[in-house]
Amino acid sequence: MKVARITLLALLAALVAVGVSTTAYAFHSGGVAECGGCHSMHAPKAGGTALLIGIDQSSTCLSCHEHAGDTGPSSYHISTAPADMPVGVPPKQRTPGGDFGWLKKGYTMTIRGTTSTELSETHGHNVVAADFAYIADPTNTTAPGGTFTSSNLGCQSCHDPHSAVRRLSDGSYVRGGVVGSATAPIIASGSYNNSAIPAAGQAVGVYRLLRGLNDGSQPGATFAGVPIAVAPSTYNQTEATQQVRVAYGATGTNTWGNWCATCHAGMHSSGNYVHPIDQSLGTGVAAVYNAYVKSGDLTGAAATSFSSLVPYAENTGDIPTLKTHSSNTGAFLSGPATADKVMCLTCHRAHATGFPEMLRWNMEGEFMVYNSLWPGTDTTPTVPQFARGRLGVETQAAYYDRPVTQFASYQRVLCNKCHARD
Fold first, then answer.
1. Which of 161, 248, 269, 399 is the most exposed, fewest CB within 10 Å of its CB?
2. Of the candidates 342, 327, 343, 340, which has an alpha carbon nearest to the alpha carbon of residue 245?
3. Contact status, residue 342 vs residue 281, Cβ threshold 8 Å
4. pLDDT per residue as tens digits for the range 185-194
5. Is this prediction's pTM over 0.85?
6. Which residues pair with 412 in a beta bridge?
7. What is the pLDDT of residues 390-421, one digit of tens each?
């Protein structure tokens, strides 16, 4: 039996290696997965807990979600192995959430005579995965704008590997796994544009097995509401020619801002954390977004204005609608309506990016593109404030391999996609 399982895994690995699509979401299937995939009854990882096959929870996740030997974006992988990204080589994965490998990429630069370092840990959420050399954030001991302890941060902090939250056939959300209660069983994943439609008495999982509905199982965090989104079933790909559009939704208190505020509540209330979140774009901003093509060019049309570098939440929680908007082929590129909303993920990715604060673009200089080149120490050596210690190929990778010709020859930052001050 064990031999048969190993053979199947080897076959699946070979299919992925040659580019054949597999049902990458089948293992979790919207809810609790095969117990033996994460736990070992008789041979768990020495020094670990809960009979896990990894030393900690995130290491257990990465035992599948990182794969040494990747040559490019690969299926459900979210972390590039160090051997696959030596100095000067960027991380390989291009998932909507980003590649945790950027957490191992720090850069040193000299700007106006002063040498400084862009620390690797500034590039994303520093999950603790000791088996894979991911450590707690050494600078922020608690979540910025909150009190969640950084040493507790792992994949399980945001995702529920046992996934009790589910969407019923009427579109409502409930939590299972509560003693004394009963609810519909989860039949499949609910994350994708080809996910099953549950019939009466059935349910599907929520987007990416994310926590919600007052899940307080994580120390110092209680997740209210449900984050709503639909992704294309193939989502880890270069965006050199086609973007990956995750159709984010928002309805009532089920918003991405409320969900992120579980750990970052201060960013919504006072001090310097004051950018509007979960608010309607309004007529003016929506019109600018739809017209903005690049710096100096406001001739765009709403039907083709969407950019995955500046996504937004649609003002709906209707999953069938979001399914039709989710694509990896450019099938739906319409921009926002007035009631659609800015969200945390408009500017940030959830895992990590090539830029500080896991931003989708570089905010540390005026120009994303300089003299028709991706900034790099090998391409724009006289302007290190734009290259920031990177090679041009690393900068391009952080923009998911887009050709520089998609932007202006002197392209300024993408705050302008909504504000057009360039």
1. 269
2. 327
3. yes
4. 999 999 999 9
5. yes
6. 367
7. 999 999 999 999 999 999 999 999 999 999 99
